[in-house]
Amino acid sequence: MIQKPKGTRDILPSEIYKWQYIEDKVKKVFENAGMKEIRIPVFENTELFSRGVGETTDVVQKEMYTFDDKGGRSITLRPEGTAGVVRSYIENGMASLSTPLKLWYEMAMYRYENVQKGRLREFRQIGTEVIGTQSYLADVEVINLGMQIFKALNISNIKLNINSIGCPKCRAEYQEALRNFIRPNLDKYCDTCKTRFEKNPMRILDCKEEKCKQMNQGAPQILDYLCDECKEHFENVKSLLKELNIDYEIDPNIVRGLDYYTKTVFEFISEDDGLTVLGGGRYDGLVKEIGGQDTPAVGFAMGVERLLEIFDKYNSNSVKDKTVDIYIANIGDRANIFATKLVDELRKRDVFVEKDICKRSLKAQFKYADKQKAKFVITIGDDEVDNNRAKMKNMETGNEIEVELTADEIVKNL
Ligand code: ATP
Ligand code: MG
Question: Which of the four, 107, 139, 298, 334, has the lowest number of CB atoms within 10 Å?
Fold first, then answer.
């Protein structure tokens, strides 16, 4: 048997209603904030990610699905959404639209990861990007949208951690301090960390190797090196969060896995399983880095598979799959044609209705209706066709009433 590739999953018909429920709720939250959906290609030119996400990140160094296409171009399956959205923003001249540009997306991402709980090779992210404002107000709006999504999905026990990782200005001095801290132990760090020491020492703080994590303890913190502007920005974010009664903790260890972040960074962590469900932050340098005008922006991405795990815990009793409103059982050729037409009329009225399309016995039809948890069953034979009336049975109560066999009459009795 051919199996699915490691790290992928099938989303089955039996669980799709949960995905759709989540997607509907999230879409509402975004749309009420004036956001428009954007859809971009699954693959991009590799250079977009090496420049956008950063040469020294785990994503680019270890996790990308990169290949040459038949025309010899280096192509990469998108490992994240922001770089592609920003590429599209520049390429389509969206800078001329009114500011800020508020976008959201839901897209599959591809990363060659160590597969484990909450870590897949194909996974989905729902995210937002707000492009064109440097104000802390946008940071707070984006964080608040994340909060609202969890609320709309009835998910509690979520913790918000925030940090500021400054701008290139404050980072220069910090990176020197960090190098001085790491240098005495450098030969004991993993090979990847060693390659990052000169180019991007902050990446070393994001290393997942246990021995590197140990040695990183007590490292200088960027918060102590923020320039006045970054400091003020962070203070403003914090005080507005307080005004909004949004609880947060400052976690000076958040550096985020992608290089483009500046100033505010944040993570929403599920206290049920300890996993980060949502991560984001400001990325003021990215638009320029990819070839656009110098344009500030802020956004987040949440892992939908991780979201679903916790969603189940809080909603398994209240969110259920739709079941068929009416099943029309029939026997005989005339009744079959009659029932087919009636189904057609009912569906035009937006009723969830089914009938047999396998030419099965009445008994088998009832069995099917039962399995589908049909709310009502109407049974039609020759007599019912002649009289244009039939019994309509409420399957939950067992009550039966007689109805005229027109779509309008049936709808009235639902
Ligand atoms: P980590 O440090 O845990 O690897 P990251 O910095 O790579 O995280 P982001 O790229 O910011 O994470 O992704 C945002 C969110 O997307 C994560 O918080 C998580 O919910 C989800 N996510 C990231 N990678 C995966 C994956 N391999 N499988 C499933 N979900 C993922
Ligand atoms: Mg990662």
Answer: 334
Instruction: Check whether 255 has a pLDDT greater than 90.
Output: no
- CB neighbours of 321 closer than 8 A, spacing ≥ 6? 14, 17
**What does the pLDDT read at residue 67?**
98
Length of the chain counted residue by residue: 414
| CATH topology agreement for domains 16-167+227-314 and 326-412 | no
Q: Closest ligand 1 atom to the C-alpha of 113?
A: 27
Sequence-distant (≥ 6) Cβ neighbours of residue 138 within 8 angstroms: 100, 130, 298
Q: Which ligand 1 atom minimizes the distance to the CA of 267?
A: 18
Instruction: Kindly list the domain boundaries of the chain, sorted by start residue.
Output: 16-167+227-314, 326-412
Name the CATH superfamily for 326-412.
Anticodon-binding domain (3.40.50.800)
252-256, 271-275, 408-412: least confidently modelled range? 252-256
Mutate to test the pocket of ligand 1, among 125, 205, 256 (most ligand atoms within 8 A of CB): 125
The answer, yes or no, to whether any atom of ligand 1 lies below 6 A from the CB of 132, is: no
Please name every residue paired with 377 in a beta bridge, in sequence order, or none if there are none.
Answer: 327, 393
Q: What is the pTM of this model?
A: 0.93
Ligand 2 centroid to residue 281 C-alpha, Å:
15
Locate the DSSP E strands across 8-85: 36-37, 43-45, 66-68, 74-77
pLDDT number for residue 3:
98
Q: Whose CA is nearest to atom 5 of ligand 1?
A: 257
* pLDDT tens readout for residues 260-270: 899 999 999 99
Ligand 1 within 6 A of 301 CB? yes
- pLDDT at residue 13 in the model: 97
Q: Are 200 and 255 in contact (CB under 8 A)?
A: no
Give the separation between CA 376 and CA 401, rounded to whole angstroms: 11
> Over 90: is that where the pLDDT of 206 sits?
no
pLDDT of 56 > 90? The answer is: no
Distance CA 52, CA 247 (A): 31
pLDDT in the model for residue 257: 78
Q: Is the CB of 113 under 6 A from ligand 1?
A: yes
Residue 97 per-residue DSSP state: S
